[in-house]
Design goal:
Elements lengths: L6 H7 L9 H17 L3 E13 L5 E5 L5 E3 L1 H6 L5 E8 L2 H13 L1 H31 L4 E2 L15 H7 L2 H5 L2 E2 L5 E2 L3 E9 L20 H4 L17
Antiparallel strand pairs: 1-2, 1-4, 2-3, 4-8, 5-8, 6-7
Length: 239
C-alpha cells in the first residue's frame, strides 16, 4: 500500500492549531515523520459476505453476516447497513514493528515518540482508506454501491465484535493482528471496519469525490467516473 502521511494531520493529532512553531522543531518533526514513512507500511485484508437483516429475542434489529458467526447489533450499525445486501469486513495494520519502534522511542526520545505515534495514526488511516478504495472499486465493477466504512467503537457498535472479525478473516495468521481480553487490537496501530454493499445508491453512501477519504486511491475517480450514483445520472456535483 502507498504511504502518504499528511503533515497537517500529524499536527492536528498533536493538538496544533496554528500557533507559531520554531523552524528547527518543524524540521525535526518532519524528519521523524519521514522516518515513519521509511520504516513502516500498512497491510490489510478484506472479504465480502452476504448479509441478512433480522431481529434478536428482544425485537431489536440485527445484521447477520452470513457464512460467519458475526452478528452486528446496535441501532447505529443496523441503520448504517439498512438496505445492504452484503458487506465487506476489513482489517488493516502497521504490524508489530510499529509497536517496537514506539517502545524504543518511549525509552530514548519522548518527543520523537509522540510525533511518531501521530504519524503512525495517519499512516494507518491512509492505509485503511486505500483498502476501502479497493472495496469500492470491487463493488462498482459489479454495479453495486457502498457506504463509508464503519468501525467497532463508532456509535453503539461494540468493540466486542473485533475478535470475531479477526477470526472470520484469519487476521491473526495472515496479518499478525489479535485482540486482547478487552477486545483491543494488537498491534495497537490496527483497525477493523465494515463497509456496506448495496444494490441501490444508499442515503449514507459515498460523498462527492472532493470530500471522499478514498479519493487519492480511487481507480474509479482516476478514470473520470464516480461510484455514488447510477451511470445514467447527469448530476456531476461533488466531483
Amino acid at each position: 500500500m502507498s504511504r502518504r502521511i499528511r503533515m497537517d494531520e500529524v499536527l492536528r493529532y498533536l493538538g496544533y492549531s496554528g500557533q507559531e512553531m520554531d523552524p528547527a522543531l518543524r524540521r525535526r518533526m518532519g524528519a521523524i515523520v519521514d522516518s515513519c514513512e521509511d520504516e513502516l507500511d500498512c497491510h490489510g485484508i478484506w472479504a465480502t459476505f452476504p448479509v441478512r437483516h433480522d431481529t434478536d429475542g428482544l425485537g431489536e434489529r440485527t445484521v447477520v453476516v452470513e457464512g460467519t458467526t458475526l452478528v452486528l447489533t446496535g441501532h447505529d450499525i443496523t441503520e448504517h447497513l439498512s438496505g445492504a445486501s452484503a458487506c465487506a469486513l476489513m482489517v488493516s495494520t502497521l504490524g508489530a514493528e510499529s509497536a517496537r519502534r514506539l517502545e524504543v522511542l518511549g525509552a530514548t526520545d519522548q518527543l520523537a515518540q509522540v510525533v511518531y505515534d501521530a504519524a503512525c495514526t495517519d499512516l494507518i488511516e491512509r492505509g485503511t482508506d486505500e483498502l476501502e478504495a479497493q472495496v469500492v472499486a470491487w463493488a462498482h465493477g459489479r454495479g453495486l454501491y457502498t457506504s463509508y466504512r464503519y468501525g467497532p467503537g463508532y456509535g453503539d457498535l461494540p468493540l466486542s465484535v473485533q475478535p470475531t472479525i479477526l477470526d472470520v478473516l484469519s487476521a491473526g495468521k495472515r496479518l499478525g493482528v489479535t485482540a486482547t481480553d478487552d477486545c483491543l487490537l494488537v498491534p495497537m496501530k490496527s483497525e477493523t471496519a465494515v463497509v456496506g454493499i448495496y444494490p441501490e445508491p444508499p442515503s449514507n453512501g459515498k460523498p462527492g469525490c472532493s470530500r471522499c477519504a478514498c479519493r487519492d486511491y480511487c481507480e474509479i475517480h482516476a478514470r473520470g467516473d464516480v461510484c455514488y450514483r447510477r451511470p445514467e445520472a447527469d448530476d456531476r456535483e461533488g466531483r
